[in-house]
Fold these 2 entries.
Entry 1:
Amino acid sequence: MKMMNRFILSIAVSMILIACTENKTPEKVSTAVFDSSYKPPVFTDGSRMEKIMQAFPVIDKIFRDYADTNHFPGVAFGIVVDGKLVYKNNYGYTDFEKKTPVTSSSLFRIASMSKSFAAMAILKLRDEGKLNLDDPAYRYIPELRNIKYPTADAPAITVRHLLSHGAGFPEDNPWGDRQLADSDKDLMEFLAKQISFSNPPGIAYEYSNLGFALLGKIITIVSGMPYQQYIKKNIWEPLGMNTATYEFRDVVPEKLAHGYRWLNEKWNEEQLLGDTADGSWGAMGAMISSIDEFANYVGFHLSAWPPNNAKDDGPVSRGSVREMHHPWRLIGMNPAFTYPNGRVCAAATAYCYGLNWLRDCNGHVFIGHSGGLPGFGSNWRIMPDYGIGIVSFANRTYAPMSVVNLQVLDTLITIAGLQPRQLPPSAILEKRKQELLKLLPDWNIAEQRDIFAENFFPDYPLDTLKKYARALYTKAGKIISVKEVKPENQLRGSFIIQGEKTDIEISFTLSPENPPLIQEYHIREVPKK
């Protein structure tokens, strides 16, 4: 419950921050100076990969059973660990009539999984100083200047509103699917007829394909080239996604997955949507890719975690990828969220930039996106703290791949006994710990030491410090050992002093000064188990 309360507070703060920034002046690209002493969290289980591999037969069975139960003509999936595709498999056919087998290089339409590529392109243009997320969208699409908002006090739609499904447009599935072939002229004529709003901009989450169609238009206007070409050149090609495309007519026939609908106890082939190369709505859902190549994209997202000092040479900076992963707009809380195995674990969900975000009652964070079109269903998810991810495609109408992917990741953690990365204590936390130990329990000449921030002794009177420390040391008896610092971050941590009769926990927080000084301190008894 404490963990969930902390999360609720953090998500509330995030929502306040986004609300406050929506009408701020344009952000500037900063030049970061890194601290070489920063220690990122690391995995501590040396046999982690071997344990993950032991789960592959179970994962195979999960997918095979799921495909059979849900009538998938074909399915393909891949497991990504630490940025690399470590396992892949597939069943069934891409073309049921010709019995063309699915392979990891088969090309499936991935529908709304396309959205994060548009979001990444927007952030790349932002990083290059060519646009700002809080700019009104009409700065780039003049036709939006004449939009009639539902209320007189509605703010202008911003780029950030579009990225986070906060523009006030109504949820438009499956209507949006049928717009894939619309031309740029069609989109402009649509805007000229006015948009029907479900909410004023900026106050609520509502999934909008239209919003991402407009982002595609902004990419085209700002970059000076069609969004398809910009994304191909600046994202796909740098990631080795050389067969990815928005146009199914460009795909070699034997590589193309045909889409089917299960109806009247048989598979009925669906017409492939979006049959024009210049489709104005394609940024929201027209992309075609393979497991082999999409795994590179999944690996790139995983490589953004944890923050580190390694060379940063991706299509966009790792910092911008992490910005994509941030829960910018709250979707809701589900106290009865249930995993596929029946386990109930409350969860909160939010929308990032072109990505969904979920955090459950155990603190597990999932980031990714689903895709669904007539003939296709797909999903990818990563767990940044665990360094694992999955992507899966099926060629059945709106195949619910998010369910099986969630089951697989949850199963993988359970079977392999995976633990998240552990944060090592920073050098300054270790130093302040040792300095505190020299003062405890008597706090002799503490005020003469230069390790405390200016607020410390006014907030923690010396006589009180002595009273509680001496009492707990007496209760603990002989000191047996002092455990290592357990960091919460670079400047906050705690450690255990093991006594003969009971244990003592010391927690402390350092200030933002250079060097950081002790600004907060707590001591408490931790009864032995």
Entry 2:
Amino acid sequence: MKELVLRLFKRPVLAAEIFIATLFITMLTLAMPLYVIQILNRYVTYGFHGTLITLTAGMLMAVFLQLAFRILRTKMTTIVNQTPNDRLSLEVLDIISRAKAEPLDQFSKPRIQETLNHVQTVQKTYDAQTVNTVVDAPFSLLLIAVIYLLSPLLAGLALTGIAIGLFTGWVSTRKSQQGAEELVIENARHRAMTYSAVNALDTVRAFGVGGFLQNIWQDQVAKISQWQKKITVSKEISQTLTLSGSSLTSVFLYAVGAILVVQGKLTVGALIGANILASRAYQNTTRLVPAGYMLSRAKKALHDIALMQRLPMEPASGSALRIYKGRVEFQDVGFAYPGMSHPLFESLSFTISPGTAMAVVGQNGTGKTTLAKLLMGLLEPRRGSILADDVNLQQLAWPWWRKQIIYMPQEPSFINGTIRENIVFLDPDLDEALLNHILRKSDLKPFLDLTPNGLDTFLTDNGKNLPPGIRRRLSLARGLVTNGHLVVLDEPTDAMDETGRLAVYKLMNDLMNAGKTIVVFSNDPKIVKGVSTVLNLNIKPTPEIIHKPLPGTEGE
């Protein structure tokens, strides 16, 4: 509710117009009971057709005016929610795009996906219908006030019926809400397990994981079914109580009103009009119950989104060097992942001169990929500094810096889209001739020539449907688009066939001849042989740096 109030009063003029429109809608609601009262008290009594025509014409005007005001109000309440809903969606996308990688990694992928779903929950909740429901409720007091003018006793009965309807609805909603929270937890667990199984279909088949999954899924599905049943029953009870409350209120109104009619304290028309007003007031107020349930869900969703919004973000601004020559320097760099007993690096210091090549070697887990991510700015050192041409990376604008690097990660992933789109993200206007040159350099051209749609082939499942070697070629092509002065290649020949490895060797030679600075993370003997510097991460705590005067990779 707080969020709804904030949204309304961020647009005070529009909010005032919404309240004025609601006032007119409420006043026009009085037309029907007044029409009934006048029909029964005047036309039925005297039978003058002119009275009927006049009353009916007035009633029709009221119906169309009310319709116009409702349409106008709906448009205004849509405007109230449109900007905050759009902003929330963009903020979550910005978090995914700019949140620092290490804190974001603390959120599991299913949890991140759940947060994205929360955005839709908020957008569905804070819509025109919810705002209209909340605004209508207090104006229902005007309807009760009119009943009071007809009969204070009937007004008291109407208020009592509404209070009971709200209370029973609130109790039922509370039970549904508790069940819904449990259902969300169980659904999240089930989705996480499903996500795990779908991403490892070969493992499921090859190692007979089906029995293991079946036991877990049976338990999860049973719990989900149980909570869904409880929620369904609770909702049905809530709806039944609401409808019964409306009927009971009408019964008591007619019963008491009939006595007042017999006593001459109330006319039949006034009795029927009072019941119509009470029904409208009951309907307007009890609609708050489902709206309140939705608002509570949206509140929980906003809370979860807020947790992600607290993640530290990469700075939106920073410096950009006029010319980056390709020099990289590590000064006393230390890094450890949370929970590690020992750091990967304690005091790592070295310099890579422009136009030279360095190979980083080491066993699995020694920190090769971590070092590559530190160079990319995807991770930050716990201590020390990384300099680019004597400027600390932390002072540079990350988008600019990443465009200075030809980057090929160890485990490439892609976005669902065409191959062309995945290659040219960093330069959407890339010249076609240059794109074809890149495709040949990365040895991707033969694969595309055999693919019916070529560059327009659509990637699904983040490109996991492609063979590993093709994914690496595609990753290499994507990196070459920047034509940066620094080349960071993480296991470039891994999963490559002989043709692919030869293409990598030749490409590295070409990049060295072009004066690029190359940092390659690989244990490939041919790559290690061709570089001038080797950083051995197997040596702890201080990695060994070996300098050797070699011209470059030969790719023999």
